[in-house]
Amino acid sequence: MSDSTLAQPAVQSLLGQWPVATLSTFGTHGIDTVPVVFWYNGAGQLFIPHDGKPKRQGRLQRFRNLEADPRCTLLFQHYSADWRQLWWLRVRGTGVTQSLGEGPAEGLRAKYPQYAHTELTPGNEAVRVEIRAARLWSATSDLDVDDIGRMLECVT
Asked: What pLDDT score does 55 carry?
């Protein structure tokens, strides 16, 4: 992937630390959108697990959608009453369903302490998103890693 936005330190920081994103996939009835937890491997791939959080029975719609059409978008965002602090990051990619490997499982456990009490088993179904493009917007032109750290304190 040659998208220069992905190489920006603020983008790398967001992908590595931000706690939740919104995943959009193409379904038979239009666009399906769902909040997800994820792990970023630092090399242009995001992993979204099928974990033990309560869900409907059966296979998740996101997996069925991605098998029919692998295009997907993830939106990371921060809202504040102080609109000078607004930002969003949109990542477009190709989603592939696969087994959750031990590396992504370890990364997810390190990022989310909740996995000490919620099932996250290597071998469970997961989505691997190959990032194709990224776009960052912020109300200020100089969003940096320190800003992201301060915002993380507010949301975690």
From this structure: 72
